[in-house]
Structures are given as C-alpha cells and as structure tokens.
Write a structure and sequence with these properties.
0% strand, globular, 12 helices
C-alpha cells in the first residue's frame, strides 16, 4: 500500500476517534474519554509487542526519539493550542494551528535532508488552505481583545506538532518499525496524561459512565490503529510529503460530523470547497 494512502487512512482514523469521543461525551466527560483511549491503545499495542517482538528493541537509540515525540504531541501541542483558543478564539487559533505541515516540511528539509518535489510543495499549500477554509470563522461582536504576541501559542502548537513528526521519522530511520514507535509514543503520552491528572486533582473524572463505554472503547481501538498507520506512513514516506496528509484530520472530522452528528453539524459550501482543495492537494502529492 502506498504511504500516501496510509497517511490519509491515519487522518481518517483520528477523525473517527474524535467523532466517537464526541458521541460518548454526551453521557460522560472528556477526561474519561482521553484516559480510556490512551489506556486501551497502550494495552492493545503492548500485547502485540510482547507477543511478536523481543524486549531488547526497547533499548534501541531510536527510543529517545519516540519518547520525545510522545512528550511533545499530543500533550504540549494541545496545551499550547488551548491557550491560543482562550486568547485568540477558535476563529484565529484554528487556522494558525493548521500550518503545521509547513513547519514539518521546513524541518524535514533542514534536518532530515529531504528534497521535496514541486508537487509536494503545491499539494501542501492546497491542504493547508483547505484547513484554513474549514477552520476559519468570521469574528463576531463582543469578541475579547487580543495581542499580537498571543499568536505564539497556536503557532507554537503547530511547530511542536511538526517537530514531533520529524522526531518520529528520525527514530524510524534508526529502527524502521511502526509498532515499536507507536508503543513507546502512546505509553509516554499516557504516562504524562496520568501525571497531569494527578497534579490537577482530577483523577476522579477518569471513570466513564456505562453508556459511554461502547463509544470510548471503540475510539481507543480506532486511535491505536491510527497511531500505527501514522508510523507506517512515516516509515515508508518522507515527512515533507506525509505531514500534510496526516494533518488533514480536521477535514475528515468535519465530514464525519456532518454524517454522524447531523444534529450538531451541517455541510456548507465552505466545507465542500475545503474538501475539494484537500482532495486536489492529496492527488497532487500522491501522483508526484
């Protein structure tokens, strides 16, 4: 299977995870969803790892790359993005977060010495434009004031996400196995998330209600699969080409919301145009 298709499937998987979490959150809370997702994903990945891999692989030099990647994303990237939303609003923070593929491309050229072709640049521009188009919302009256410095937070989230993708690729160049990378990254994220809950005194919130278990459990399995596909795409393809496809998750999230959450979302002309831009960009990159 082509790495471009794997990257798109990974993006679709993360979008499916978001929709399932949203559906389950109607009767529970987001902390329970995140903890169950991390826990089940880690359990699934560790079971597979222990059955088919020797433990000595965990002592590979690639492990430090995967550990750092797990520290940066999703936790640090999400914190910076949430601060950006608080200070700027979603209408500004969302599109700024969406330029992560540009950072990923620049980092891949500078540090991994990749040499993207013109179609990769063109496809990246179209995919970023599609994220902007769907994420952007016109500012309403009564909006809180913001300062130019505040843009550092969503831009920081975009940069951290790009660094994380390049760290994963760096680790995969040393140890080209997506399962090991997924195990270490997911476990790191789970550990950091659990520590943050302890520090905030919100451990009691991680117990989900019975009604939400089918949604959260399914979301965890989908997330684990998406994580593996993410590493598979980076193993087989260059970061500069994979990053814009992996970061197309917001588009699939909106599409899936319109299909499965019709009471909350509706398809607009802007969404349709955004999808067409994304598809055009993906086709350009895959046909390079």
């Amino acid at each position: 299977m082509r790495p471009e298709l794997i990257a798109i499937l990974s993006a679709m998987g993360w979008a499916g995870d978001a929709i399932l979490v949203r559906m389950g959150a109607r009767t529970s809370n987001i902390y329970a969803a995140a903890f169950l997702s991390y826990s089940v994903s880690a359990l699934f990945l560790w079971c597979y790892f222990l059955l088919f891999y020797p433990l000595r692989l965990l002592w590979s030099p690639a492990t430090i790359y995967f550990l750092l990647s797990g520290c940066l994303q999703p936790l640090l990237a999400r914190i910076l993005f949430y601060i950006g939303i608080t200070r700027l609003g979603v209408s500004r923070a969302g599109p700024l977060r969406g330029i992560s593929p540009f950072f990923a491309l620049v980092l891949a050229v500078l540090f991994l010495h990749e040499r993207p072709t013109l179609p990769v640049y063109g496809g990246t521009v179209l995919i970023v434009a599609s994220v902007w188009l769907i994420s952007w919302r016109s500012s309403g009256r009564g909006e809180s004031e913001w300062k130019l410095f505040d843009i550092i937070f969503p831009l920081g989230a975009a940069f951290v996400g790009a660094v994380s993708q390049n760290l994963r690729k760096g680790g995969l160049l040393i140890l080209p196995d997506p399962y090991i990378g997924a195990v270490i990254t997911t476990t790191t994220s789970l550990t950091i998330f659990a520590i943050s809950l302890l520090l905030m005194g919100r451990v009691r919130l991680i117990q989900p209600r019975r009604e939400s278990l089918p949604f959260f459990g399914s979301a965890a399995l989908v997330a684990a699969t998406a994580q593996i596909l993410n590493f598979m795409a980076l193993t087989r393809g260059e970061v500069s080409a994979m990053a814009p496809l992996l970061d197309s998750t917001p588009l699939f999230t909106v599409l899936f919301s319109a299909i499965f959450l019709r009471d909350l979302e509706k398809v607009t002309a802007r969404i349709v145009l955004g999808v067409l831009l994304m598809l055009t960009g993906a086709i350009i990159i895959t046909s390079r």
